[in-house]
Amino acid sequence: MKHLVIIGGGIAGITCLESYHYLKPNDKITLLSSSPLLKSIKQVNRLTKVLEEIQVEQVTIDEKIEKFTTNDDNNNITISISNVYKVDTVNQLIYSRSIDNNEEVESKIHYDYLCICTGAKPNIIPMKSN
């Protein structure tokens, strides 16, 4: 079993997670996001040969992880709110910081595969209240 680490919880990171999980459902996947909200593609409509309309949804980590744990019984996907501050490609290690019970916690994660899907900075979509 291999371990994929994905840095970034935007559309590219979530698409990477979903695609890799589809191809390798038994491999371990860790997604590190600096934002508690994740973005993914909800629907794609082809308008012309070269133009598509893409609907983006914004969900919490719990909502996204629920999708994988209810569709199959694999508990091999971890999504964490943390900031990556160092990537050691020689030893295949990711160093990150997260907040747990108001204390900063440092983590070191070993990976077999690494996918860096970072953007400039998280863009929070305003939610309409009903």
UniProtKB/TrEMBL annotation:
Keyword terms, alphabetized: FAD, Flavoprotein
Membrane-crossing residues? none
Sorted alphabetically, which InterPro entries does this protein's record hold? FAD-bd_OxRdtase, FAD/NAD-bd_sf, FAD/NAD-binding_dom
Which segments does the entry list as coiled coil? none
List, in alphabetical order, the Gene Ontology terms for molecular function in this entry. oxidoreductase activity
**Domain FAD/NAD(P)-binding: residue ranges:** 3-128
Tell me which domain of life the UniProt entry assigns to the organism this sequence originates from.
Eukaryota
Task: Give a yes or no for keyword Flavoprotein in this entry.
Answer: yes
The answer to whether UniProt assigns keyword Flavoprotein to this entry is yes
Q: Which cofactor does it need?
A: FAD
Its protein name is FAD/NAD(P)-binding domain-containing protein
